[in-house]
Amino acid sequence: MKTQVAIIGAGPSGLLLGQLLSKQGIDNVIIERASGDYVLGRIRAGVLEQGMMDLLREAGVSERMDKEGEIHSGFELAFNNKRVHIDLEALTDGDTVMVYGQTEVTRDLMQARSEAGLTTFYESSNVVLHEVKSQSPYVTFEQDGKMQRIECDYIAGCDGFHGVSRQTIPESVRTEYERVYPFGWLGLLADTPPVNNELIYCKTDRGFALASMRSPTRSRYYLQVPLTDKAENWSDDDFWEELKKRLPDDVASQLVTGPSIEKSIAPLRSFVCEPMQYGHLFLVGDAAHIVPPTGAKGLNLAASDVATLYKVLTRVYQEGDKECISQYSDICLRRVWNGERFSWWMTNMMHDFGDVSVNGADAATFEKFMSSELNFYTGTEEGRRVIAMQYVGLPYEPLSTQ
Ligand code: RFL
Ligand code: PHB
């Protein structure tokens, strides 16, 4: 089989890239390790920046998002039983974010792909990338017990943090930057009305909590937990009880509880692989970088990589300009590091690091620095604007069109 772009992974990065390339007449095939249902069963991101909303519109997959997604013009930071409103719209140029789950984005993209009759292999195993430095790379994999080979011009590695694409870049060429945090987030999804109409990020002596949502009838909550905890050892009652203790009192009294639909623990990590391009292979999204979820940046950074790559490949195919290939990594990494820094900063400021020393400071000293940071930034309009600007996302800087 032959295609122009072989895409590894049918998460949001792979599906969105495939959709945008197809709209430009660029042929692509997606190879995914899991089943479609498995991909849709993963509960992840919930907040889309303006740039990602616009990209989904450009891809022609925004109809349901525009109908069902909720525009949020602000969010709250709670600490010391105080609630500080970050008015995104007033503090920026009228920018807002949208609450529309990653699951729904993925479902819309899958549907568009199947309606367009584009090829996706699900449940493929032993996916291997070959000759990525050459003009004729190819991908092999096993499908229903048979070996398959797809010849292509380019490969997009959209296979997440645990995928194979990044490992294809020789270690001598790759530099990896990493910070692993000493706690995780326990997430719970429930068909209960959200406790507040905006997200609330809470810092408490018992650890961090986040009150989020998916719709007016579906809420999503998170608790900071030790990495040694197991989701199955947390009963729903234990979760709700702990959440009430971490929400501001007036909010906790409004909490509606109910049975969980999903409960899982995610570790927190900051990670970047440089460069993001090697020969005819491009890394996209979580395959190249991971952020802790505190700034809601993971999915949005993935979307901005996709925006850049689809512009690069469009230029390659429509204008024969191969020079721009070497710009992909630098363009993406500028934005990635901004997102990494913001997520790291928010994570440091909002979490309880227990007795772990951080950045060379003992735990008590680090906590004093972070409390002061939080008070300083939330206590002035300039500080709140710095938070707001970063939360709504910096402008996309995909390839310029000059
Ligand atoms: P994904 O979504 O991980 O998709 C990668 C796909 O590649 C497949 N795959 C392979 N396919 C073929 N061969 C192989 N060898 C393969 N290995 C893997 C996988 O099955 C999968 O389908 O990466 P992508 O597309 O780059 O999308 C990135 C986003 O998923 C990610 O950034 C966000 O979900 C991160 N994230 C969050 N981001 C936010 O912006 N806001 C959030 O609130 C938020 N919450 C989260 C999150 C990530 C979580 N993880 C990673 C556990 C909550 C969680 C729990
Ligand atoms: C979510 O709703 O899953 C969510 C929202 C904001 C975050 C992280 C997760 O920062």
Characterization of the model:
36% of the residues lie in helices and 27% in strands. The mean pLDDT is 95. It has a domain at 5-71 and 99-178 and 269-353: FAD/NAD(P)-binding domain (3-Layer(bba) Sandwich). It has helices at residues 12-23, 36-41, 50-58, 63-68, 88-91, 102-115, 165-168, 236-246, 249-252, 298-319, 328-350, 363-379, 381-392; strands at residues 5-8, 28-31, 47-48, 70-72, 75-79, 82-86, 97-99, 120-121, 125-130, 138-143, 146-151, 154-157, 175-190, 200-203, 209-215, 218-225, 260-274, 277-278, 281-283, 289-290. The chain is an alpha+beta fold. Strand 5 (75-79) and strand 6 form a beta hairpin. P-hydroxybenzoic acid binds at residues 45-47, 199, 212, 220, 293-294, 296.
Keywords:
binds P-hydroxybenzoic acid; six-stranded mixed β-sheet; FAD/NAD(P)-binding domain; 13 helices; alpha+beta; oxidoreductase; EC 1.14.13.2; 402 residues; binds 8-demethyl-8-dimethylamino-flavin-adenine-dinucleotide; FAD; eight-stranded mixed β-sheet; 20 strands
